[in-house]
Amino acid sequence: MRRFTLDTLLFDFPRDSRRPLDWLRRLLRYPYALVRDLLRGDLNLRATGLVFSTLLSIIPLIAFSFAVLKGLGFHRDLEPLLYEFFRPLGKQATGLTAQVMGFVERTQGGVLGSLGLALLVWTVTGTVQKIEEALNWIWRVERPRSLARRLSDYFGIIVLGPVLLVTLLGLFSAIDNALPWQAWAHSSWTVVLHHGLVAAEPFVVVTAVLTAVYQWLPNTRIRWRHALVGALLAGAAWSACGTAFARLAAYSTQMLAIYAGFALVLLVLGWLWLNWLILLLGAQLSFYLQHPSDLRHGNLELRPTARLQERLALSTLWLVAEAFLQGRGKGRGWRAMDLAERFDVPGSVLAPVIDALVEHQIIVATDDDRLLPARDLGQLRLQDALTAVRLGRQEDERLLHKAHTLPAADRFADAVEEAVERALDQRTLRELLELSRAEEVAGDAAGDSADAAATPPR
Question: Could you give the number of structural domains in the chain?
Answer without folding.
Answer: 2
